[in-house]
Amino acid sequence: MQHPAFDEVTVHHHVDDTTFKKKVRNTTILLSIITIAELVIGLVIYNIHKGDSPNELLVLMFKGAVCILTLAKAYYIVSVFMHLGDEIRNMIMTIVVPLLLFVWFIGAFIWDGSSYKNLRNKYDAHYKETTMPHKH
Amino acid sequence: MATTATVQQTKWWNGGKSPFNLEYGKLMMWYFLMSDAFTFGAFLISYGTIRFSQNFWPDPNVVFNAFPGAGHANLPLAFVSVMTFILIISSVTMVLAVHAGHNNNKKEVAKWLVWTIIGGAAFLGCQAWEWHHLITGEHAVLVDGQLGIVGQTTRINPWGDLASSTDITAAIQNTPREILERLAHMGGHGNEGAAPVNYAALPNEALIKLIDFEGLHIRENGPVAFGGYFFGITGFHGFHVFSGVIINIIMLIMTQKDVFARRGHYLMIEKAGLYWHFVDLVWVFVFLCFYLI
User: Fold this and answer.
1) Rounded to an integer, what distance in angstroms lies between the CA atom of residue B79 and that of residue B6?
2) Smaller CB count within 10 Å for chain A: N or C?
3) Among the listed residues B90, B91, B67, the one whose alpha carbon sits nearest the alpha carbon of residue B77
4) Does A2 contact B at CB distance below 8 Å?
5) Whole-prediction pTM value?
6) How close B192 gets to chain A, by Cα (Å)?
7) Structural contact between residues A67 and B288, judged by C-beta atoms closer than 8 angstroms
């Protein structure tokens, strides 16, 4: 006898074992490759920082690349491991659309932080002098 | 495909069935995870705001460069990559447990749950080691015009900018004798050789001459917020891992007691699985924000 909670689900996902194993294996390999790529970029950033005059723009570009790789990793975890990709579209939207708030959330608060820094440096010379990293 | 056709022809909102094709518990788990994502997001964004408001922020590669058993070797990113892989692999074993549940295969479910629990416990062990290493670490710092030896706590951050040699020279005079002796033990010219120098017996002048101030890489104190955010956010994540392990243990016990077999389905494992994958998902972002950038 099936449980009532099982009956309200109309379509059950039944994946055959070979397709499933292939999908999981490919996703695992993909996640590992992305993680290794992130680590390599992390070490590149470390070595740029060690140099005498680090190229700040280059560092920023590498950090941007790591952020994109992380988003790719998050996509695969949510879509394959958590099976969100297999759910019906309306359900996916009730999860994904609210998360769009993060676009504003991240932008606004990062902007706020750097604006605070700039204003303080502008109006408080002592603060700027004592906290700015000095050249060695 | 038969499934696709059914999905398109079904009148989802006619009642009597879940319009999202999900049982109540799983849907609510998704909404809980969404709200939890906002909680973590708020913490991480707050960290970002503070970081962007500072003129100086410690380089993560300088802070996290230790590996258990490797002593003082400089190994940036090494330990945290081990932690990341542990969590990814435990996520994979959870996927396998959920799949075994679809096949109503009790033995396989139990096996993969055990591996997932082991992965979670290993991750927690790594985190405990890392916290312990950070808190009890001994780092030479220049604070308030004198030298000191501190670890990373929520009150002080030892990874500020490198101190200038003029500042260090001035600070030596204000530094207590006991700190000088400890500094000599950390990096002194008398440590090598068959018979190490007995620093305690030396007069101040001779002791100071033997300390390798250059080699100690003495730093100023860094932003205090670093410790609070690091311990706060990794701690909150670690708490999630801990509760995930507990949930998985409960799932294992229920599996072994045939609760799911009698129910006819293993949907509960799916809900625990969603939670476990979410913990992995959050770590991906914690890893990004604290260790990589």
Assistant:
1) 49
2) N
3) B67
4) yes
5) 0.91
6) 28
7) yes
B9-62: per-residue pLDDT in tens?
Answer: 778 888 888 889 888 999 999 999 999 999 999 999 999 999 999 999 998 988
Nearest to B162 among A31, A99, A136 (CB): A136
Count H helices, E strands: chain B?
Answer: 11, 3
Residues in Cβ contact with B261 at an 8 Å cutoff, skipping those fewer than 6 apart:
B104, B106
Residues B124 and B27 in one domain: yes
Containing domain of residue B213, as a range?
A: 140-220
Residues composing chain B: 293
Q: Which one of B17, B31, B85 has the shortest CB-CB distance to A8?
A: B17
Q: What is the mean pLDDT of residues B263-290?
A: 95
B112 and B191, same domain (yes or no): no
Interface test with B, best of A12, A33, A35, A39 (most B CBs within 10 A): A39
Look at A45 and B61 and tell me if their CB atoms are within 8 Å.
yes
Counted across chains A and B, CB pairs separated by less than 8 A come out at 179
Residues 6+ apart with CB under 8 A from B170: B145
Is there a contact between B199 and B207 (Cβ–Cβ < 8 Å)?
A: yes
B196–chain A nearest CA distance, Å: 33
Q: Which residue is associated with the tokens 């033990």?
A: B185
Residues B231 and B201 in one domain: no
How do residues B226-238 score in pLDDT, each as one tens digit?
Answer: 999 999 999 999 9
The 10s digit of each residue's pLDDT in A70-81 is: 999 999 999 999
pLDDT digit string (tens) for B127-150? 999 999 999 999 999 998 899 999
pLDDT tens figures, A43-54: 999 988 887 778
CA proximity to B131, closest of B219, B82, B72, B64: B64
Q: Does A22 touch chain B (CB under 8 A)?
A: no
Flag whether residue A118 sits within 8 Å of chain B, measured between CB atoms.
no
Whether A10 has its CB under 8 Å from any CB of chain B: the answer is yes
Domain spans in chain A, listed from the N-terminal domain onward = 4-88, 100-136
Residues with Cβ within 8 Å of A101's Cβ and at least 6 positions away in sequence, in order, are B38
Structural domains counted in chain B: 2
